[in-house]
Design a protein that fits this description.
α2 packs across α3, α3 packs parallel to α5 and α4 packs antiparallel against α5. The protein has six helices and no strands. The N and C termini lie far apart (44 Å). The protein has 87 residues and is mainly alpha-helical. The chain is globular and about 35 Å long. The longest helix has 15 residues.
Length: 87
């Protein structure tokens, strides 16, 4: 979790105050705060947060891992083209 905090601090240094709150929450001792932060990071930062989401996927709390894995699945899965969807 320490490496995640360092990477998180570097990655969010240029973002808004809201991102800083999410960043701080992602490193919280409170698992629910981490879960909410990881969900927010996945929603707002998207593919730029893949490294943080991968680290969160190793969190001690199953709820945090579940949210991180959901976002990793959504962000890493290529979008199907219209022709593939209509087939």
């Amino acid at each position: 979790m320490i490496a995640w905090r360092r990477r998180r601090d570097r990655g969010f240094a240029r973002l808004s105050a809201g991102a800083q709150v999410a960043s701080d929450s992602a490193a919280s001792e409170n698992a629910e705060a981490r879960r909410i932060a990881v969900d927010g990071i996945g929603k707002k930062v998207g593919k730029l947060a893949l490294a943080d989401l991968e680290e969160a996927a190793d969190d001690n709390d199953a709820r945090v891992r579940a949210v991180a894995l959901r976002w990793l699945g959504e962000l890493k899965t290529p979008t199907r083209s219209k022709s593939a969807r209509s087939a």
